[in-house]
Amino acid sequence: MKTTESLVTTKLPIYIIVFFQFFFIISCSQKKSSENNNTVNSPPEIKIKNTSIIILGTIQDAGSPQITCSKDCCKHLFENPDNTRKITSLGLIDAQENKTYLFEATPDITSQIKMLTKYNNQHTKEIVDGIFLTHAHIGHYTGLMYLGKEAMDAKNTPVYVMPNMKNFLCNNGPWNQLIERKNVNLFEIEQEKPVQLSQNIKVTPILVPHRDEYSETVGYKITGPNKSALFIPDIDKWDKWANNIIDEIKKVDYAFLDATFYSSQEINNRDISQIPHPFIIESFEKFKGLNNQEKSKIIFIHFNHTNPVINIESKESQVVIDKGFKIGKIKDVFEL
After folding, report:
1. Cβ pair 203, 132 in contact under 8 A
2. How far is C-alpha 35 from the geometric centre of its chain's CA atoms?
């Protein structure tokens, strides 16, 4: 194609010359806009203005894909990671006091804290105002290592723990180094005794039966200014609990519940009796007497890498939804 200069020398009509000049300018402008597209057209950051819970992860302790897994559920993820597959954690934003709290210190804590603090409308800190731990299994506390000397070298981050959990952290390395260096400040909490975080927010630990090799296991009731939530990411079976799960669901507005496995058919290389959790199909049976309003409170979380409901388009996911329950998804927000 001839350049604009060569067109002038051929003495084409002026309107044609103007057209080509205009076309050239527009083309360059569009190219520049395209090159800067990430900043020009990126959507604004979502900010949460009301006290809320946000799901920061939904996957079981070992992540997805899981180490050495060669099943269809993981094979393609080694080459094409899914950044939404974070290990189970909740964030709590106290809008009135401008504070944030983390439930579980997972191996994904780096991105989860960043996500949580960015969502807070006024928060300017790089670290949360407190962390609540449920128990001493790898997906629930090992993220504390990133608060230590080799990482951010945090200063007195409050960590809320039950007595056995406190004892485990204080008497085992490298966790006791966090305490000695004052990276964390442990606050011992008690069964069924509320922790008053502010005038409008309290958190109550509730003991649940689980594989307690190193610590006890708790769930939490989180009470906000208008609504409340139950958080039980790990439990052996509903019928092993001294509390009645049906009654506990009726007391709250949201129930984030252990759904590690859809059914026993997922695990064919392990003794599933050694890793007990409520199967989703067992929870269907347990909760079948609830009315639709009560069922809609239930948000399933803590999915093993084999659990088909991780894929929201799977037939199993559709069954969950058709029965009136919810499947937890990262970045879902629930106002308190």
Report:
1. yes
2. 33
Amino acid in the structure at residue 305: H
Secondary structure (DSSP) of 136-161: SSHHHHGGGGGGSTTTT--SSEEEEE
Could you tell me where the DSSP H helices lie in the chain? 4-9, 14-35, 37-40, 72-79, 109-119, 138-141, 163-170, 175-180, 245-250, 280-286, 292-295, 315-322
Interval 218-242: pLDDT, tens: 999 999 999 999 999 999 999 999 9
Q: Structure pTM?
A: 0.83
With H, G, I as helix, E, B as strand and everything else as coil, classify residue 14.
helix
- Average pLDDT of 286-292? 96
User: 324 in helix, strand or coil?
Assistant: coil
Backbone phi and psi for residue 72, each to the nearest 5 degrees, phi listed first: -60, -30
pLDDT band at 45 (very low <50, low <70, confident <90, very high): low
> Where is pLDDT greater, at 186 or 12?
186
- Report phi then psi at 229, rounded to 5: -140, 150
Which among 52, 72, 28 is positioned nearest to 229, based on CA atoms?
52
